[in-house]
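Just wondering, does anyone understand what follows?

——
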Amino acid sequence: MSDRAQKTNHGIGPVVTASHLAAGAMPALSEIEFAMTLMHHSFERWMVRCMAAAGVPGLQPIAVHLLHAVAHRNREKTLSELCMLFNIEDTHVVTYAIKKLDALGLVASSKRGKEKTVKATQKGLEACHRYHQVRESLLVASMKRLNLDEEALSGIAAMMRTISGQYDQAARSATSL
């Protein structure tokens, strides 16, 4: 076991779900993967429940993401822009979520040339505002009490975006095997 792995968690090794992967040349990457998995599921659960508390129950996490993205700067977005923004290959996932948001009156769809566009409705903007209020009250207030270094958090976010590019490149390479 590497010195790093022995120092992690008082000598018991890295906290991972796949020791066979952590036994490779970069155990810290397995730690990151496990942490991302936990954070991903926690974040999705939070988004769904926060949106329900904001008065819009029953949305899937991708629909919540899309509603916030469409409300961002209150500009219409194309489906391809939304897919690119969230790195989603399967456009049907985005199309289905947009149809659900449209049916709830949270977004309105139109066309720009041949491409479908989506814009938040007033009802959608209000839902995002209520989500923001719930988020500030329940999540941001408790996070602020942790006294985390916000500059360091921004650095972590930048590193995560960089690492996501490495996963994308590796995925492209794996496709050719």
Observations:
- The CA atoms of residues 50 and 134 lie 7 Å apart.
- The beta strands are 77-78, 107-112, 115-120.
